[in-house]
Amino acid sequence: MKKVVKFGGSSLASAEQFTKVKDIICSDIDRRYVVPSAPGKRFSGDTKVTDMLYTCYAAAEQDEDFSDKLAKIQARYNEIINGLGLTLSLDTQFEEIASKFAAKAGKEYAASRGEYLNGIIMANYLGYEFVDAAEVIRFNHDGSFNAAVTNKIMSKRLEKVERAVIPGFFGAEEDGTIRTFSRGGSDITGSIVARAVNANLYENWTDVSGCMVADPRIIRNPEPITTITYKELRELSYMGASVLHEDAIFPVRQAGIPINIKNTNSPEDRGTMIVEKTCHVPKYTITGIAGKKDFVAINIEKDMMNAEIGFGRKVLEAFEKYGISFEHMPSGVDTMTVIVHQSEFEEKEQKVLTEIKHLVHPDVLDLEPDIALIAIVGRGMREARGTAGRIFSALAHAKVNVKMIDQGSSEINIIVGVKNSEFETAIKAIYDIFVVSQL
Amino acid sequence: MKKVVKFGGSSLASAEQFTKVKDIICSDIDRRYVVPSAPGKRFSGDTKVTDMLYTCYAAAEQDEDFSDKLAKIQARYNEIINGLGLTLSLDTQFEEIASKFAAKAGKEYAASRGEYLNGIIMANYLGYEFVDAAEVIRFNHDGSFNAAVTNKIMSKRLEKVERAVIPGFFGAEEDGTIRTFSRGGSDITGSIVARAVNANLYENWTDVSGCMVADPRIIRNPEPITTITYKELRELSYMGASVLHEDAIFPVRQAGIPINIKNTNSPEDRGTMIVEKTCHVPKYTITGIAGKKDFVAINIEKDMMNAEIGFGRKVLEAFEKYGISFEHMPSGVDTMTVIVHQSEFEEKEQKVLTEIKHLVHPDVLDLEPDIALIAIVGRGMREARGTAGRIFSALAHAKVNVKMIDQGSSEINIIVGVKNSEFETAIKAIYDIFVVSQL
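The joint structure predicted for all components is written out below.
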């Protein structure tokens, strides 16, 4: 068995967190490949090391003296090293960083050092081999990730390595130029490593006990999701749930490796398993709720619309012409509504409306802004009759006006449109009916 | 005040029915223009005069002796004439019909005589002027109705005529060749007359007390609809409610003339008012329910579908290419369902599926046949919160599985997809919750 374990910044913010991480890793001999982030915030108001590096490098770029700033960063690392009682010095590494900063080695190089240095400490602390990500993760010259070459190099490099630490977030071009993934990119590194070593499980350790049924900013202490399919996760992520980035899911999903989101501060919690398929019966009918504000509904009415073959296609063409992707298109007999992102639509509004008028000559063309969309997602909804009834009863009870409803035959997803101002009320009502009261 | 009154075949099937009709007409001096149908069935199992005419003419076309058949038709009319105690003979008319049948004057000519003769009797009985529809309703040589010319001729002809009977269902080309509307076309004649005389109301007298909230074949003695807007009616008609043909609504709607559906056998009933706009508060939250069976759902899944601008447009293009109009297109994030008529889709099925594959390369492409669509329509739904909740609770309670939901921002229409086999159960459940229990 091989497990790849990735730890987020808050899991590695201090020596205390490092000891928790070591306990976790040592409690399971299968946890052989470790992907650390850079040290995060130790307390609310603290600064992440990556942000300190950005600031420091910005000074270097302006030819200002950045030695104090760099010293503070080294102090952060030394605090960890000393806290762990290690006899490790990062002086050589910091000298190299100072000279590269002075030579303006680039923002991506600067940002990557947070993970790089943390990886060295982690390897030393665990007694694992340190494998520099620059050696095994390959980027193209245009900055895009080269999956095929990476997989080949990394598989080969790690083949004979029993246990290793590979820092997250960065890699390098063939000539050694450091490149980074978008921020939060350590998740991607973990996923790439899992695929390269053909892991049985990719554990993603963070500071929450998995994905939550609803957004904690709206629902206080929401229940965690124990098992979620990639498909459900994608629907929730798309609708605003912040879990893993698409790019972090792709390599393991492709290889059929499940992901387990775990909490470093509460390792006994099961966390969330993200899987391709499961016969695990969800605890609640719904797996999760997510939503986004600021959509606009374009209502089109035309007598005998339904008799006009090509009507819908022409309407969508008007949006496509101006590069606007539509989210939903519910329709009646002589009415059609197209839902799009307000931000995308606003500046091209008049052009699109003119195009629609020109293409289909509607009788009525109306706009309704400030619409929020809520996705209620769950593979359990397929089996449970009455899900829609419960949702809409709950919304009615909470005096929420439903502006739009959309449920296709996949039956794992119902989309509801409400006013922006009723968004939180609607989410609370749905959460209550399915999770709190379980009516 | 001018009212145009159209009477259906069952309202004019016998002398007894004629007396009811005269009472109705004489009870309101505004009922000045009368459009009769041909005599309908007097009892269950009886034959409509129009069908007798078709059979008779079919014999004539085969050069068979049709005199007996024609005599039976004249007997039907004489029964009415005698029953009303009129001193009217239709001998001249029947001689002309016999000679024209022998000369093979055409099916449309044959069919039209039912209304023509009934109009003559009605005019005689009421003491109104008889105006032959052949004189005032103009068809083009290709058989299409010529609205502009008709309106001009008819307005002029009726300008000085205080009270008239104009037979329904037919008109003529410029050279006098008789042409008919599709069957049920007397409704169209009434509408055209109402527009030409600029009537204040078009009364359409039939054998039911207006439009019903639901199909009487599914709901026993459904409640009538007192007031319905054209828009609501169109949605219900489209979804299978049999009320007036589109072509019968168009002329009066254009002229802003309301329609009143009334019951000859129960004239005191208010019937149904069909209007452009109304502030009449509906008795129930919903105005009506209608539905149709035999749709098929084409489910399309593709990862990252939502990121692909033009995806929906391309899918619709595949249907359009083969002349298939889509009914609904509910969508999730990575899923899209297209609902089409099974009968339209079946024979082109493989071509359309291949086209979809070619255009958008879906991950999954599934078909689900035998879907019924139900439209719950009502202008009152805009105001009443919780309509959707009531619908879906009722369906859940009736153990109906909801396959699809579609509600746009017009908010006067919710479309629900269920299995064909659960169609009647679903309609009953919805009718019960809104009309019977009014929960």
